[in-house]
Amino acid sequence: MNPLIETIKAIEVETPVDKIIRQLKQLIVSGQLKPGDRLPAERNLAEKFGVGRSYVREAILKLEFYGLLRTSPQSGTYVSGLSINILDNLLTDVINFNKDDFNALIEARYYLELSVARVAAERRTEEDLASMTKALDEYENKVNNGLNGVEEDLLFHVKIARATKNPVLESMMLILIPDLIKSINENKVCGEERGILSIPEHRAILKALEESDPIAAERAMAIHLNEIFQISRAGYAAKQLLNKENE
After folding, report:
1. Per CATH, is 102-245 categorized as 2.40.110.10?
2. Is the model's pLDDT at 49 over the cut of 70?
3. What angle in degrees, to the nearest 10, is found between the helix axes of 126-144 and 194-210?
4. Which residue among 5, 28, 41, 192 has its CA within the 20 to 30 Å range from the CA of 239?
Protein backbone atom coordinates (compact mmCIF):
# COMPACT_ATOMS: atom_id res chain seq x y z
CA MET A 1 0.00 0.00 0.00
CA ASN A 2 1.25 3.48 -0.85
CA PRO A 3 2.55 4.99 2.43
CA LEU A 4 1.14 8.35 1.35
CA ILE A 5 -2.39 6.92 1.55
CA GLU A 6 -1.79 5.94 5.18
CA THR A 7 -1.15 9.59 6.11
CA ILE A 8 -4.51 10.78 4.75
CA LYS A 9 -7.22 11.16 7.38
CA ALA A 10 -10.96 11.32 6.90
CA ILE A 11 -12.50 14.78 7.08
CA GLU A 12 -14.33 15.21 10.36
CA VAL A 13 -17.58 17.14 10.26
CA GLU A 14 -18.53 18.60 13.62
CA THR A 15 -22.04 18.18 14.90
CA PRO A 16 -23.93 21.11 16.46
CA VAL A 17 -23.37 19.48 19.85
CA ASP A 18 -19.60 19.36 19.27
CA LYS A 19 -19.62 23.03 18.26
CA ILE A 20 -21.52 24.01 21.39
CA ILE A 21 -19.07 22.09 23.59
CA ARG A 22 -16.12 23.64 21.73
CA GLN A 23 -17.47 27.17 22.24
CA LEU A 24 -18.09 26.50 25.92
CA LYS A 25 -14.54 25.18 26.17
CA GLN A 26 -13.20 28.39 24.66
CA LEU A 27 -15.24 30.50 27.10
CA ILE A 28 -13.85 28.49 30.03
CA VAL A 29 -10.22 28.45 28.85
CA SER A 30 -10.31 32.19 28.11
CA GLY A 31 -11.64 32.88 31.59
CA GLN A 32 -14.96 34.33 30.44
CA LEU A 33 -16.63 31.38 32.16
CA LYS A 34 -15.05 30.43 35.48
CA PRO A 35 -15.61 27.44 37.79
CA GLY A 36 -18.78 28.22 39.75
CA ASP A 37 -20.26 30.52 37.10
CA ARG A 38 -23.86 29.90 36.06
CA LEU A 39 -24.67 29.27 32.40
CA PRO A 40 -27.48 31.19 30.69
CA ALA A 41 -30.82 29.38 30.37
CA GLU A 42 -31.13 26.70 27.64
CA ARG A 43 -33.48 28.91 25.63
CA ASN A 44 -31.03 31.81 25.67
CA LEU A 45 -28.10 29.55 24.76
CA ALA A 46 -30.06 28.05 21.87
CA GLU A 47 -30.79 31.53 20.52
CA LYS A 48 -27.15 32.61 20.84
CA PHE A 49 -25.81 29.42 19.23
CA GLY A 50 -28.51 29.56 16.54
CA VAL A 51 -29.59 25.95 17.09
CA GLY A 52 -32.55 24.06 18.54
CA ARG A 53 -32.78 23.58 22.30
CA SER A 54 -32.36 19.81 21.88
CA TYR A 55 -28.73 20.34 20.78
CA VAL A 56 -28.02 22.55 23.78
CA ARG A 57 -29.68 20.01 26.07
CA GLU A 58 -27.58 17.16 24.64
CA ALA A 59 -24.35 19.15 25.04
CA ILE A 60 -25.21 20.01 28.65
CA LEU A 61 -26.12 16.37 29.35
CA LYS A 62 -22.74 15.17 28.06
CA LEU A 63 -20.89 17.77 30.11
CA GLU A 64 -22.90 16.87 33.21
CA PHE A 65 -22.13 13.18 32.71
CA TYR A 66 -18.40 13.97 32.68
CA GLY A 67 -18.76 16.15 35.79
CA LEU A 68 -17.91 19.36 33.94
CA LEU A 69 -21.26 20.97 34.66
CA ARG A 70 -23.67 20.57 37.56
CA THR A 71 -27.35 21.41 37.44
CA SER A 72 -29.61 22.43 40.29
CA PRO A 73 -33.35 22.34 39.58
CA GLN A 74 -33.78 25.50 41.63
CA SER A 75 -30.91 27.66 40.43
CA GLY A 76 -29.67 26.46 37.02
CA THR A 77 -26.53 24.96 35.47
CA TYR A 78 -23.03 25.83 36.73
CA VAL A 79 -19.44 25.20 35.62
CA SER A 80 -17.93 22.65 38.02
CA GLY A 81 -15.31 23.62 40.56
CA LEU A 82 -12.49 21.81 38.74
CA SER A 83 -9.34 23.71 37.74
CA ILE A 84 -9.06 25.30 34.29
CA ASN A 85 -6.38 22.80 33.19
CA ILE A 86 -8.49 19.78 34.12
CA LEU A 87 -11.59 21.30 32.49
CA ASP A 88 -9.63 22.01 29.31
CA ASN A 89 -8.39 18.41 29.02
CA LEU A 90 -11.75 16.86 29.84
CA LEU A 91 -13.59 19.09 27.37
CA THR A 92 -11.23 17.95 24.62
CA ASP A 93 -11.97 14.32 25.55
CA VAL A 94 -15.74 14.94 25.35
CA ILE A 95 -15.42 16.52 21.90
CA ASN A 96 -13.37 13.59 20.62
CA PHE A 97 -15.42 10.91 22.40
CA ASN A 98 -17.67 9.99 19.47
CA LYS A 99 -14.95 10.17 16.84
CA ASP A 100 -12.16 7.99 18.21
CA ASP A 101 -13.28 4.52 17.18
CA PHE A 102 -16.61 3.77 15.53
CA ASN A 103 -16.20 0.02 16.06
CA ALA A 104 -15.46 0.47 19.77
CA LEU A 105 -18.55 2.65 20.18
CA ILE A 106 -20.72 0.05 18.45
CA GLU A 107 -19.35 -2.64 20.76
CA ALA A 108 -20.00 -0.48 23.83
CA ARG A 109 -23.54 0.24 22.66
CA TYR A 110 -24.21 -3.48 22.07
CA TYR A 111 -23.30 -4.59 25.58
CA LEU A 112 -24.89 -1.55 27.21
CA GLU A 113 -28.22 -2.03 25.42
CA LEU A 114 -28.35 -5.72 26.32
CA SER A 115 -28.01 -4.79 29.99
CA VAL A 116 -30.53 -1.97 29.65
CA ALA A 117 -33.12 -4.27 28.06
CA ARG A 118 -32.70 -6.82 30.84
CA VAL A 119 -33.09 -4.25 33.64
CA ALA A 120 -35.97 -2.48 31.86
CA ALA A 121 -37.89 -5.77 31.66
CA GLU A 122 -37.68 -6.04 35.44
CA ARG A 123 -38.62 -2.42 36.25
CA ARG A 124 -40.82 -1.08 33.44
CA THR A 125 -44.20 0.40 34.27
CA GLU A 126 -47.38 0.51 32.21
CA GLU A 127 -46.57 4.16 31.51
CA ASP A 128 -43.17 3.13 30.15
CA LEU A 129 -44.81 0.56 27.87
CA ALA A 130 -47.25 3.16 26.57
CA SER A 131 -44.34 5.54 25.74
CA MET A 132 -42.42 2.78 23.95
CA THR A 133 -45.48 1.70 21.98
CA LYS A 134 -46.16 5.28 20.90
CA ALA A 135 -42.55 5.69 19.70
CA LEU A 136 -42.75 2.40 17.79
CA ASP A 137 -46.07 3.27 16.15
CA GLU A 138 -44.63 6.58 14.96
CA TYR A 139 -41.46 4.84 13.74
CA GLU A 140 -43.40 2.24 11.75
CA ASN A 141 -45.67 4.88 10.25
CA LYS A 142 -42.69 6.81 8.95
CA VAL A 143 -40.75 3.81 7.67
CA ASN A 144 -43.80 2.29 5.97
CA ASN A 145 -44.29 5.58 4.16
CA GLY A 146 -40.71 5.67 2.92
CA LEU A 147 -39.58 8.32 5.43
CA ASN A 148 -36.57 8.40 7.74
CA GLY A 149 -37.58 7.23 11.21
CA VAL A 150 -34.22 7.85 12.89
CA GLU A 151 -35.63 10.14 15.59
CA GLU A 152 -38.40 7.70 16.47
CA ASP A 153 -35.88 4.84 16.49
CA LEU A 154 -33.71 6.83 18.88
CA LEU A 155 -36.70 7.66 21.06
CA PHE A 156 -37.70 3.99 21.38
CA HIS A 157 -34.24 3.04 22.66
CA VAL A 158 -34.15 6.01 25.02
CA LYS A 159 -37.57 5.05 26.43
CA ILE A 160 -36.22 1.58 27.20
CA ALA A 161 -33.28 3.13 29.05
CA ARG A 162 -35.66 5.38 30.99
CA ALA A 163 -37.63 2.30 32.05
CA THR A 164 -34.58 1.03 33.97
CA LYS A 165 -35.16 3.84 36.51
CA ASN A 166 -31.38 4.21 36.57
CA PRO A 167 -30.35 7.75 35.56
CA VAL A 168 -26.73 6.71 34.98
CA LEU A 169 -27.73 4.05 32.45
CA GLU A 170 -30.04 6.55 30.77
CA SER A 171 -27.26 9.16 30.61
CA MET A 172 -24.82 6.65 29.14
CA MET A 173 -27.37 5.74 26.48
CA LEU A 174 -28.00 9.38 25.64
CA ILE A 175 -24.28 9.90 25.15
CA LEU A 176 -23.66 6.81 23.02
CA ILE A 177 -26.82 6.37 21.00
CA PRO A 178 -27.74 9.60 19.14
CA ASP A 179 -24.58 10.00 17.05
CA LEU A 180 -24.36 6.25 16.38
CA ILE A 181 -27.94 5.82 15.18
CA LYS A 182 -27.71 8.92 13.00
CA SER A 183 -24.40 7.78 11.50
CA ILE A 184 -25.66 4.23 10.87
CA ASN A 185 -28.82 5.49 9.18
CA GLU A 186 -27.28 8.33 7.19
CA ASN A 187 -24.48 6.13 5.85
CA LYS A 188 -26.80 3.12 5.36
CA VAL A 189 -24.25 0.94 7.14
CA CYS A 190 -26.75 -1.92 7.32
CA GLY A 191 -28.29 -1.38 3.88
CA GLU A 192 -31.39 0.25 2.45
CA GLU A 193 -33.88 -2.17 4.01
CA ARG A 194 -32.67 -1.87 7.59
CA GLY A 195 -35.59 0.34 8.59
CA ILE A 196 -38.18 -2.21 7.47
CA LEU A 197 -36.27 -5.13 8.96
CA SER A 198 -36.13 -3.37 12.32
CA ILE A 199 -39.91 -3.34 12.72
CA PRO A 200 -40.42 -7.01 13.80
CA GLU A 201 -37.19 -6.82 15.85
CA HIS A 202 -38.48 -3.79 17.75
CA ARG A 203 -41.80 -5.53 18.32
CA ALA A 204 -40.03 -8.60 19.72
CA ILE A 205 -38.18 -6.38 22.20
CA LEU A 206 -41.42 -4.66 23.22
CA LYS A 207 -43.20 -8.01 23.66
CA ALA A 208 -40.48 -9.25 26.01
CA LEU A 209 -40.69 -6.02 28.00
CA GLU A 210 -44.48 -6.34 28.20
CA GLU A 211 -44.05 -9.87 29.57
CA SER A 212 -41.41 -8.66 32.06
CA ASP A 213 -39.05 -11.33 30.73
CA PRO A 214 -35.44 -10.09 31.15
CA ILE A 215 -33.86 -13.05 29.35
CA ALA A 216 -36.16 -12.69 26.33
CA ALA A 217 -35.65 -8.90 26.31
CA GLU A 218 -31.87 -9.30 26.29
CA ARG A 219 -32.07 -11.94 23.55
CA ALA A 220 -34.40 -9.81 21.41
CA MET A 221 -32.10 -6.80 21.76
CA ALA A 222 -29.09 -8.95 20.81
CA ILE A 223 -30.88 -10.11 17.65
CA HIS A 224 -31.81 -6.51 16.80
CA LEU A 225 -28.23 -5.26 17.17
CA ASN A 226 -26.47 -8.34 15.81
CA GLU A 227 -25.98 -7.10 12.23
CA ILE A 228 -24.27 -3.84 13.16
CA PHE A 229 -22.34 -5.65 15.92
CA GLN A 230 -20.93 -8.14 13.40
CA ILE A 231 -20.02 -5.28 11.07
CA SER A 232 -18.11 -3.60 13.90
CA ARG A 233 -16.30 -6.85 14.75
CA ALA A 234 -15.29 -7.29 11.12
CA GLY A 235 -14.06 -3.69 11.07
CA TYR A 236 -12.06 -4.25 14.24
CA ALA A 237 -10.48 -7.41 12.80
CA ALA A 238 -9.59 -5.58 9.57
CA LYS A 239 -8.02 -2.77 11.58
CA GLN A 240 -5.95 -5.25 13.60
CA LEU A 241 -4.78 -6.96 10.40
CA LEU A 242 -3.83 -3.62 8.87
CA ASN A 243 -1.83 -2.69 11.95
CA LYS A 244 0.07 -5.99 11.76
CA GLU A 245 0.83 -5.44 8.07
CA ASN A 246 2.22 -2.00 8.84
CA GLU A 247 4.45 -3.19 11.68
Report:
1. no
2. yes
3. 160
4. 192
